[in-house]
Amino acid sequence: MSTILEKIATIESEMARTQRNKATAGHLGLLKARLAKLRRELITPKGGGGGTGEGFDVAKTGDARVGFVGFPSVGKSTLLSTLAGVYSEVAAYEFTTLTTVPGCIKYKGAKIQLLDLPGIIEGAKDGKGRGRQVIAVARTCSLIFMVLDVLKPLGHKKLIEHELEGFGLRLNKQPPNINFRKKDKGGINLNVMVPQSELDLDTVKSILSEYKIHNADITLRYDATSDDLIDVIEGNRIYVPCIYLLNKIDQISIEELDVIYQIPHCVPISAHHRWNFDDLLEKMWDYLKLVRIYTKPKGQLPDYNSPIVLHSEHTSIEDFCNKLHRTIAKEFKYALVWGTSVKHQPQKVGKDHLLCDEDVVQIVKKV
Predict the structure, then answer these.
(1) From which residue to which does any coiled coil extend (predicted)?
(2) Taking the CB of the first residue and of the last residue of the chain, which one, N or C, has fewer CB atoms within 10 A?
(3) Are strands 290-295 and 303-311 parallel, antiparallel or unpaired?
(4) Chain segment 230-239, per-residue pLDDT in tens
(5) How far apart are CA 179 and CA 320, in angstroms?
């Protein structure tokens, strides 16, 4: 492992020494590609499967999963215990939490699993502390709460983002709009839709040659960087929404609070005094992008207490049927829908109809 770390360190120092201009762009792209490959080896070593971690992976329950990430002693465990009523050991010294502590809250009818992860330290992406396991669990979450101390937020925020990005997590970003297709012959074909400031054919070729790819079609639909291209080639990047929680706001003035409220993706809270939790939960609901669908048995009133919760990218009637039970989709004849996704109340729809939040659905099976 140390050899990989040494290689990473030498590449990073070389990148720091290299001046950035058009002549060195290809070389820097090559170094970035090598760095990405070494990082991937750190996450998944080439050998056989490693031993299991001590109780790190937690079974996925509920409709969504939210992970608390942050440095030690910023109030992650306090926040979990006040939100979910689960006891996660709290003390005034660092590294109190040693493994993942799960909790569950019910909000707007959806069950949301909260995971209190151990503190991250600098160098976590290189395997320091429990960093590798912590970030591996963070990769499975649908939303990340980055808990920061309000008295020293920005330095910490940059460090944690750097650690997570080194592990292939991209916070609050969209996947790059780059079309990449390998082929058997024909060399590298680069199509550019808009003028590029960083990538040209030579840079792209040098990055691809590092991955031993010599035949491919690439379409750049926006001004892309070499990092974006590497993300697309690696293909194991995870794009997660993230909310920055600035904890301990009981220690600052109102004027400072007004300034903090301007920062995007930010919610100031106090876990100890339970301040501003409603704002936090509302923002969490927005970022999770969940859609609630109510079921209606024939001849009865809709069941408004326990909705079926779908993700906003998978809201077709077919997804709804699969969530209820796998066999329903086979016996499906048509569905009756009440709500904002249809013109008439009720309306007969097929499998491909897309549902909106708080629609009511009655499914009619084949006889």
Answers:
(1) none
(2) C
(3) antiparallel
(4) 888 888 788 8
(5) 31
